[in-house]
TrEMBL record:
EC number(s) stated in the UniProt entry for this protein: 4.2.1.51, 5.4.99.5
Record GO biological process: chorismate metabolic process; L-phenylalanine biosynthetic process
Signal peptide location: none
One GO CC term on file: cytoplasm
Source organism of the structure: Candidatus Thiodictyon syntrophicum
Protein name: Bifunctional chorismate mutase/prephenate dehydratase
Amino acid sequence: MDQPARPADQLHEVRERIDSIDMDLMRLISERARCAQQVGRIKNALAGTAGALPALSPEEGPVQYYRPEREAAILRRIKEKNPGPLDGEEVARLFREIMSACLALEQPMRAAYLGPAGTFTQAAALKQFGHSVRTIAMATIGEIFREVEAGSCDYGVVPVENSTEGVISHTLDMFLASPLLITGEVSLRIHHHLMSREADTTTIGTLYSHQQSLAQCRGWLDRYLPQAQRVAVGSNAEAARLASLEAGSAAVAGLPAAEIYGLTVLEQSIEDEPGNTTRFLVIGPKDAPSSGQDKTSLLISCRNASGGLHALLSPLAEHGIDMTRIESRPSRRGIWDYVFFIDIIGHRADPKVAEALEHLKQASLLFKVLGSYPVAVL
């Protein structure tokens, strides 16, 4: 009678199987990378020595190395076809990194973000493009726009709204004059941590953080750190840098900032709302073709008259277009003159959306499509 395999023998057998699978994965990833290199050579040949990028086809438009709509479609398919046991989000993140590394073989990409290193905006850039992208820190949101406009960076990542504290107005204001378009969106769960050189909170007299983060942690800070003076700075990473230099100080920031600046995390996840989420926009010179699940962002203004906004938005309702967000901002063209930032579901190339936008354009004093882009996948 055969004896059952000993646990040690079973473990050895499973480990050998894992080693074999790892080699298969290596072979397939290398094959994918060689395909990416071939794609890069084909696109370089199409571009020619003069750098002009001709169209691959009328449907695809000009040659582009980074195709956000294609990546979004691939990641959606990965999540839909995932058999488990790994979670669909986890599998999609793995594929994001593979695609990021392969894209770097085609054309290394530069993405500007609100620095310094360790900010949530950098985390959003890495979530969107993967860790093979070269992230470049900028001091202000305005600098991000200018670097992308000048072509020094391929894309920029800017915060636009937080689920707790609302819209980031400076980002919206930049779209009033910028020719850049929205090419993607990133949704990032925000966890704020208290970090310091100090061993505990009793000696903390000064607390640094971004004003939005201070607001998002107001309840916790009022209860557990009422003695500390709160100082708003340009970013959470800058707050961590300052806390690393000053005794008796602390910062509210993300975990990457604690690692970069050598701080001890005294308290984790001190945000008042556990679902605290920030939405970021990816900006570039072109928006994205349709991915099948898209949003379109608009900038419009209406006549300053009774029922003006209602009349302006009527084409969306008449064509069955779902509006997911509307924000008003001063237009800077006159007193009490406002513009509206609107997000709708659908791509501007979709026939129903295109017809609604044409009617909306005719009814608007100011009409600007800020971009059509894939709905965030991760």
